[in-house]
Amino acid sequence: MHEIAKKAPLLDANGKLTEAGYAKTLILDYDRKAIKAASHRIKEWDYYLISDGIHAVALTIDDNSYMGLDSVSFLDLSAPCETTKSIMQWLTFGKKALPSTSADGDVSSHGKHHSLTFKNNCGARLLEFEMDNFRDGKKISGRFELLPTDTETMVIATPFDKDEKAFYYNQKINCIPASGYVTLGDETTEFAAGNTYAVLDWGRGVWTYNNTWYWSSASGAVDGVPFGFNLGYGFGNTSAASENMLFYGGKAHKLSQVTFAIPQKDGGDDFMSPWIFSSDDGRFEAVFTPVIDRAAKTDIGVICSDQHQVFGNFNGYAVLDDGTKIEMNDFPGFAEKVRNKW
Predict the structure, then answer these.
(1) CB within 10 Å: which end of the chain, N or C, has fewer?
(2) How far apart are CA 59 and CA 118, in angstroms?
(3) CA neighbours within 13 Å on the CB side: how many for 165?
């Protein structure tokens, strides 16, 4: 696993990654103007997931150049039930002006019947959203406050073998303390401080056309100490580093390779049966028991997306760098498999 240690531009004069590997801070500087690939291949997004283990909200502002996407998901894991509504815009080509860093800069996108705003004041984040006709004709709105944190994060710079000017630069900030509410129609759901955590998936890059990725994330607390993890693979050349990492008490602990064993049934993935997670170094072993599959499939010709973001609970253990074993007992999180032709 190669750790990037020196601050530098993300891309060189030819639009290639200056260094592939992982880091614990956003050490390489992203500049959209430095990209030399075709402009319609640039993809940028900010995705937040906020959960208290019973309810969850996912918010996305996405600019894929030839199209953009604003999305809101609201899940009740006790029912279980979920609703996702996404609004697409064509030919955005950077007009959403997503920031070049996660450290500062606001993001906002809106239309006639919706708005999403992510404000960032030195790491203190305010997320506000509303969308008409979200579920059964009811409007949804919400507001979340995310506290600033100096926690270490997962950062990875990944090249693609098929295109030397393609890359994925990604940061995951786990275990962000959060609080807020969601109002759907006349009913308000509170997310209390102390047991609500958020994760930010900050992604910038140039992707090849056809990819499948696996991603799993969890944020919470074990015996009162913030604990979480980021696991993933499936796209690009990850020979320099994987994106697998544990977080405990604000510190990051690097893992090697972790595989997602999705059970099979009738020749396909059986997403709602228990998954097995296993690492090559024995430092992450868990059974993931699904509760609900937030599935979405879009096929409009050249653009296809088949997504399964499965929410559930992890039982098993994770081992920190110093050998400390963290037991996971019905620890809430999600795991997903997504195939995109985009």
Answers:
(1) N
(2) 9
(3) 12
Which of these, 156, 148, 184, lies nearest to 172 by C-alpha position? 156
CB 311 within 8 A of CB 297: no
Asked if 312 and 244 count as a contact pair (C-beta separation under 8 A), the reply is: no
Do 65 and 39 form a contact (C-beta atoms < 8 A)?
yes
Q: Which residue has the tokens 């499965």?
A: 310
| Parallel, antiparallel or unpaired: strands 304-319 and 284-299 | antiparallel
- Report the alpha-carbon angle 263-54-86, nearest 5: 75
- Whether this model's pTM surpasses 0.90: yes
3-state secondary structure of 263: coil
| Residues 154-203: tens digit of each pLDDT | 999 999 999 999 999 999 999 999 999 999 999 999 999 999 999 999 99
**Band of residue 297 on the pLDDT scale cut at 50, 70, 90:** confident
- CA–CA distance, 283 with 179 (Å, rounded to integer): 31
Side-chain-side CA neighbours of 81 within 13 Å: the count stands at: 3
Per-residue pLDDT band for 119 (boundaries 50, 70, 90) equals very high
Query: Could you say which DSSP state residue 65 is in?
Result: S
